[in-house]
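User: For my dataset I need records formatted as: sequence, then structure tokens, nothing else. Please produce one.
Assistant:
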Amino acid sequence: MVLRPGDAGPRRRLRELEFELGEVIPRVVAQATYEFYRRRKEEHPQVFGDLSFLVLRGVGVPENLRPTRDELAEGIDVRNGYHGAILAGMVAAGCGLENPSWSWEEPSPGVVRIRIAWALFKEYFSVEDRDDISRRMPASPGQKD
């Protein structure tokens, strides 16, 4: 997709693609965004210490720059959010989550709520936080306590 001055923005183009090709388009956009920012986080971890990179890139203002596990599951609101699929991928990557699943909605004009479930933590939380969370999570089938 090539955008020229005067063309409709990427949001409109993505809506058109979704209309023409189906509901899979937002999921593809979220996954591609996640992969892109996950690689950026690995290359430049100092830039992705929290979600302030969303503000710096002009795609939204998260209500909390370091959301907890419960907040991610319940949903974090991003004011002035650019695009739900793009934000979902960016938040999941920025939080260092592996194998995330996400959803998004617009509860009010200018607000995008991102909900993320994940398989495991990576670098986002400290070792102490990860140990504490691991103790509170139920054991996997076949795993001994």
